[in-house]
Amino acid sequence: MVESIISATEADWSREKFSKWWEPSRQLLKSIRHYQKWQKQGGIAGYILCRWNVIQHRVWSVVTATDIPLNCQIQGGLLLPHPNGIVIHPSAFIGPNCLILQQVTIVADVKIGGHVDIGAGAKIIRSVTIGDHALIGANAVVICDVPPGATAVGIPAKIIEKKPQEV
User: Fold this and answer.
1) Which of 33, 50, 95, 103 has a C-alpha 20 to 30 A away from that of 136?
2) How would residue 20 be classed by pLDDT, with cut points 50, 70 and 90?
């Protein structure tokens, strides 16, 4: 079996593309991305389109039951297969091509590297750094840094293994 290697540095924007209209998590991400684009653009058109995206963001936030702010710092390629209950602080940074499952909480000043998978119910409750290609287990409570390629599980989370470095 050949496993495709997902980049921790280059965003794979195809992961956020729609296959059908009713994909609430992708609609939510689209409203955030468009808001940030028009905020940067400025001008009267930027102002009007920002307001339109604020409305869309509010609708999709209610539909998905998430709290992901419009001014969040999320790189491209984020997957939210079951977005309900996800809470992300605006000062948290999420790298490219990450996967976040339901009921995850990420507090202020957390730095998540590229291609990090975060299991259902995980809580990152301190200002920590999570390295590229790390795995956070379901219901883990992360209170310390997680090195690149490592797996963190438990309450409080402990590092249980480190993947061999991929070249």
Assistant:
1) 33
2) confident
Q: Is 64 exposed, middle or buried (0-12, 13-18, 19+ CB in 10 A)?
A: buried
99 - beta bridge partners?
A: 79, 117
Is 98:106 a contact under the CB 8 Å cutoff? Answer: no
Omega before 164 cis (within 30°)?
no
Alpha-carbon span 146 to 136, nearest angstrom: 9
The model carries a pTM of 0.89
pLDDT of residue 165: 61
Tell me the C-alpha distance between 128 and 121, whole Å.
Answer: 17
The answer to whether 150 touches 139, Cβ cutoff 8 Å, is no
Helix (H) or strand (E) holding 136: strand 135-136
> What secondary structure does DSSP assign to 11-71, as a single string?
--GGGG--SSS--HHHHHHHHHHHHHHHHHH-HHHHHHHHHHHHHHHHHHHHHHT-B--TT
Mean pLDDT (the chain, rounded): 92
Q: Angle between the 43-64 and 24-41 helix axes, to the nearest 10 degrees?
A: 160
